[in-house]
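ok so for the tutorial part 2 we go from a plain amino acid sequence to predicted structure tokens. step 1 is just haveing the sequence, like this:
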Amino acid sequence: RLLVVLEQFAGVDVCLGEVSTVTVADGVVLAAVNDTATGYEVDGCLGAVFAQTAVGFAERVAVVDGRRRVTYAQLAGDAAAVTGVLQGAGVGAGALVGLVGDAGAGVVAGLLGIVGAGAGYVPVDVDAPVERGRFIVGDAHLDVVVVSGERARAAVDAWDTGVRVIEVGAAVAAGVLADGPVLVAGSAPAYVIYTSGTTGVPKGVLVPQRAVLRLVRGNTALPVSAADTLVQTGSLAFDASTFEIWGVLANGGTLVTASKDDVLTLDRFAGLIRENTVSVLWLTVSLFNQIIATDPTVLAGVSRVIIGGEQVSGDHVRRLHDVNPDITVINGYGPTENTTFTTTHVIPRGFSTVPIGRPISNTRVHILAGDRVCGIGETGQLHAAGDGLATGYLDRAELTAHAFTQRHGERLYRTGDLARWRADGTIDYLGRIDD
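step 2 — the prediction. this is what the tokens look like for a chain of 435 residues:
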């Protein structure tokens, strides 16, 4: 590597900032790692993909909601009823619609109904403080909010914003079905998820349809099929729900909805896993650690568990491997601005450390020091690229311009995370730049 640098110093006009430390061997590895293209509906839309899936798997169970088992045909009908009411309220392609509800088939139908109208959904946690709900309505300029359940209706009423409220149950009872989903471009809004605001004012991350499809269709790193069943553990207002809901419903699988108490009460959670033959789970590292520390047999029968959101605890993963040697544990990394997952790493038995892995399908990663590409072993800031990038921050052009940059014609998102390449093309996470 020193020779590569010295050879460039022999040039007549070389700026220090342009000196590359990337060897030929480095270049080969990085090019191979970022060769992630796979086929998916790059110009498609979520409404059309779900409609096609619902026809193909009409009698299969789409959602388990307590004792209710809702087929794809039933769910598609409920969603079409919501779409019909939304269209009657003047909601069209490119609009944004609020979404509030307890976990269940109703809120899923509401989400699908919004997307079916060609609009993007803006989820708000049913337990969010009144001030947050009121802020999101104003910031996203919402005129309509879809709700499922009495708690959701009470939450929206407490905001006192004057938005029009459409109840999923009432829409289904009215039975005015839309003819079919409104077809929109891959660049059209799929959803807006708001950041926590712990470092300032919450920002609405605007995610396009294409970014979601890139995550759940043709994704070889995190494949979900019609044979899979998943318990949704994430709140609708957090972007892990993107993988949970769309990963299942875009591929003909079964989504098991669960309340917070269902997930946090381990005997109930174990019951959901056992009774529904759950094969795939997404868990935050904190929840994963809690389960493993208390009773790792809770995850018996699960074939794949994806963990992330913070630094993985190797001791907890080893304990799970000891109890369930057949389970696949995947470390998933990614900011909301790159649609849930950017990189993944299957954690093997007998591991020593846990990297964040390699970029998933239709995703690229660059580690840069300033504008200079880092070679293997060098520390720099991780930048994400590819089809998963958000459109930007809603109505925050300056913040968007700062976080989303252009380099050699490629759009990048600055993650603010320090990282370095390993010789095998996996990535080590080294913490936050601002920590």
